[in-house]
Amino acid sequence: MEIERKFTIKQLPENLEAYPFHQIEQAYLNKDPVVRVRRQDDAYYMTYKGKGLLVREEYNLPLNRPSYEHLKAKADGLVLSKRRYRIPHGAYTIELDVFDPPIAPLILAEVEFPTVDEANAFLPPDWFLEDVTNDPAYHNSNMALGTLRPAR
Predict the structure, then answer these.
(1) pTM above the 0.90 mark?
(2) What is the CA radius of gyration of the chain?
(3) Per the omega criterion (within 30 degrees of 0), is the bond before 20 cis?
(4) 3-class secondary-structure state, position 136
(5) Which residues are paired to 8 by β-bridges?
(6) For the segment 55-73, what is each residue's pLDDT rounded down to a tens digit?
């Protein structure tokens, strides 16, 4: 189960390049349910995501590179590419996604939680702007498939 809140940001945090990051590429095979393939650095996955906004099922299966490339070629819509920074924030980790074109200049911050109560009690840092957790326009699957485009 994934419990996650998502935010737009006002500004990039200071010393962004000092934080660890992953280079991510992902493509969507299906929207309902969401089935995606992802390359994260040199690791490859297929992910199933159930319905929901704040809380939803999520299952990851490992892939090898040839399987990833084969499935990516069958994907619909855009192949999304982004750099994901991992920024400590108290007991949590902010995952800051800086998207490459054509989604750029969009930047989103995601925070995962062990419980819904913790997610609802979370106080975002000052550099966060709007909570877009419940806006499906900010789901990567909707952006990739062109069904919804978030405001930037």
Answers:
(1) yes
(2) 15
(3) no
(4) helix
(5) 108
(6) 999 999 999 999 999 999 9
Cis peptide before 66 (omega within 30 of 0): no
Query: Which residues touch 132 (CB under 8 Å, ≥6 apart)?
Result: 6, 7, 8, 108, 138, 150
**Tokens at residue 33, please?**
């349910």
CB 97 within 8 A of CB 84: yes
**Tens digit of each residue's pLDDT (9 = 90 or more) over 20-61:** 999 999 999 998 999 999 999 999 999 999 998 889 999 999
State the Cα torsion 28-33-39-40 to the nearest 10°: 130
Q: Which residues are catalytic?
A: 28
Structure tokens at 13: 């945090």
